[in-house]
From TrEMBL:
It holds the Pfam family Glyco_transf_34. Keywords: Glycosyltransferase, Membrane, Transferase, Transmembrane, Transmembrane helix. InterPro entries: Glyco_trans_34 (IPR008630), Nucleotide-diphossugar_trans (IPR029044). GO terms for cellular component: mannan polymerase complex. This is Family 34 glycosyltransferase. Coiled coil: none annotated. One of its GO terms (molecular function) is alpha-1,6-mannosyltransferase activity.
Length: 315
């Protein structure tokens, strides 16, 4: 039996020819050009963003509102707890001051917002966020609790507090944000850096009279403050203790905070020389009024009602 041998290879093989790519050359070029274009776009975009961040001559990335109105004065009312007469006097007080300085007022009710099982005092937080929605061009939101009267109408809030040079002079630097805390207000901040202004009392931060500057930071701050996680903690002083927690643990908030002397915007009816109301003070508050066992807000503020009305009629 004969078996076929494999054919012998020729000693003169054909010349080498490279294997052709399955992908046409024009397609490869097109893909590479596309990749280069994407990379170039990313690089150029990165340089543009960096230049905007570090070039102070350009406009900020987030537009500042026009300032119309300059200030929205927000108050949460609870007629069932404090009575219609008291609520009406609070409305008149705010409206007269706002009209005098070209501001707007916004009155809401404690039951306007879904607070679930948390304290009614939490309503101030969505109320301020609501004000930013209703008045997107305002420059500031001033929350003033229903336990307070504005006593001196002549000067605007800007003249008393918010002008950057003035705020830079009166804001308290390098002090504990709450008693005995190692976390302190920053010492290098200037008045123009500030987005949130409030005061302290002998227990800690006070939220009965505070000012927030409208902008992206204000929205972030108010949404963070109203986070369900903080409300679920059941802090003893509800939103005030939640704010103290935020300020001590979040530099993003502490770096925009100014603590001013209490009598600037938050004098108490009862208190020592630093916090107690004195003739000529801007605001008087009956902090804690209406709580269980305490006199009503209307009762505690009754002697100041005629005083502010007279001051407004003469200014």
């Amino acid at each position: 039996m004969h078996f076929a041998y494999p054919s012998r290879k020729s000693s003169n093989p054909p010349p080498f020819r490279p294997r052709q790519s399955r992908i046409p050359i024009p397609t490869l070029r097109k893909g590479r050009l596309k990749s280069i274009a994407v990379i170039a776009t990313i690089i150029i975009g990165s340089f543009w963003i960096i230049s905007k961040l570090f070039d102070s001559r350009d406009a900020p990335l987030f537009r500042r509102p026009s300032g119309n109105p300059p200030v929205v004065l927000v108050t949460v009312l609870d007629e069932r707890k404090h009575g219609m007469g008291h609520s009406q006097s609070i409305r008149e007080n705010r409206e007269q001051y706002a009209k005098r300085h070209g501001y707007e007022t916004m009155f809401v009710h404690a039951g306007d917002y879904e607070l679930e099982e948390t304290a009614g005092s939490w309503a101030r937080t969505p109320a301020m966020r609501h004000a930013l929605t209703n008045f997107p061009e305002c420059r500031y939101v001033w929350f003033l609790d229903q336990d307070a009267y504005i006593m001196e109408p002549a000067k605007s809030l800007e003249e008393r507090l918010l002008e950057p040079d003035l705020l830079g002079k009166i804001m308290r630097r390098d002090i504990s944000v709450v008693p005995n805390s190692i976390i302190k207000t920053f010492s290098h901040l200037k008045g123009g850096d500030i987005e949130l202004v409030l005061t302290q009392d002998f227990e800690g931060l006070s939220t009965g009279s505070l000012v927030v500057r409208n902008g992206e930071w204000a929205k972030f701050f108010l949404e963070t403050w109203f986070d369900p996680l903080y409300r679920s903690y059941k802090f003893r002083k509800a939103e005030e203790h939640a704010l103290e927690h935020m300020v001590q643990w979040h530099p993003t908030i502490l770096s925009k905070l100014a603590v001013v002397p209490q009598r600037t915007i938050n004098s108490y009816i009862k208190g020592n020389e630093e916090e107690g109301f004195q003739e000529g003070d801007f605001v008087v508050r009956a902090a804690g009024c209406g709580r269980e066992g305490a006199p009503s807000c209307e009762e505690q503020l009754s002697k100041y009602r005629a005083t502010w009305q007279q001051a407004f009629s003469q200014a």
